[in-house]
Amino acid sequence: MMTDASLRCWIVSDGRKGSENHCVGLAEALGLPYQIFTISACQPWKSLSPWLLRTVPLRAFKNLPRDDPWPDLLLTAGRTPAMAALAIKKASGNKTFCIQILKAGIDSRHFDLQIVPAHDQMRGNNVISCIGALHRVDAQKLLSKCAHWQHKFQSLGLPEGPYAGLLVGGSGNGLKISHSSFLTMIEPYIAACEQANLPLIATCSRRTEPAIAQLIEKAITKRKGYYWNGQGDNPIEGIYACCTHLAVTADSISMLSESAARGFGTTWILSLEGRNRKKEMFINQLLAGGFAKIFAGTLDHNSTQTLTTMMDIAAQVRDLLHTKGYNV
């Protein structure tokens, strides 16, 4: 039986950090060292639908190794990495165990395992579903980082914690963060944190419209909180590690999944304008499991449950690899 120390794990990425982090999170949850290859597809394969492809040659990709030794385990997420998985699996003589995360426009039977969010409603003999997104947040690691970030936040002028956090995404896929959203959801949450004497730490994503980010920065700094403007260390790890209350806008499945996995505190969902059926399904799963609450104007001190998606998926993958002769 091959041990995890000798198991060769590759992550093939198209450079999109969100998708790449799904793979990295799984490798870390399995306790495996890994090597990342960032690739791109060449023409004509770049323009072809992956659903139409039965085989893809290694030469279809830039920066992809073309010789042995091939990996024992390959993790991919996204369309181009999934196509590369087909090429690697063929080149390895079908010996590489391929795990595709998320839909990729390729029949799941081409992979040894496919992991998808439950809200995608995908079924198959080799498909397992999970609540939300795979990620790198680990409750025990956060606990060990808390003191470091407490010191960091105090050096930035904040008093000693506990703190509250705010993570803001952006408009898209039927949901909109508008000025009205700021007035009805974001500003009331900021005010509720002030009333509870919780210093607030906030960050916006690259998708946040500049006008909304400016409103949030002004509201935070007026109340002597900390708003990360992109300069210096990104405090998101510290927000996860130190904030007993954490609000996330409803557009971000990844940030909500990470927040709900922290192992302590309360995760609040900030509702937005518009509709998105899949995200509504995901949010309903969070609410039904007690993993998050809809913010309705006031904070309470009843913690939400911990979402154990990463532990659950890692256990299932570990059991499956064990049946293939890998001791992970």
Description:
It is built from nine helices and 18 strands. It has helices at residues 17-30, 79-91, 139-155, 179-195, 210-222, 236-242, 253-260, 277-288, 309-323, and strands at residues 2-3, 9-13, 35-38, 40-41, 61-62, 73-77, 97-101, 113-117, 127-130, 163-168, 175-176, 200-204, 226-228, 243-249, 266-270, 273-274, 293-294, 326-327. The strands form five sheets. A six-stranded parallel sheet has the order 3-2-6-7-8-9, sandwiched between helices. The protein has a six-stranded parallel sheet with strand order 13-12-10-14-15-17, with helices on both faces. Strands 1-18 form a two-stranded parallel ribbon. It is elongated and about 65 Å long. The protein starts with a strand and ends with a strand. The model has no long low-confidence stretch (mean pLDDT 93).
Instruction: Indicate the overall shape.
Output: elongated
Proportion of beta-strand residues: 15-25%
Averaged pLDDT:
93
Helix content: 25-40%
Radius of gyration: 21 Å
Low-confidence stretches: none
Which series of helices and strands comes N to C?
EEHEEEEHEEEHEEHEHEHEHEEHEHE
What tags apply to this protein structure?
6-stranded parallel sheet, single chain, 328 residues, alpha/beta, 9 helices, elongated
Summed up, what is this model?
The chain has 328 residues and is α/β, with parallel strands linked by helices. 35% of the residues lie in helices and 21% in strands. α1 packs across α9, α3 packs across α6 and α4 packs parallel to α5.
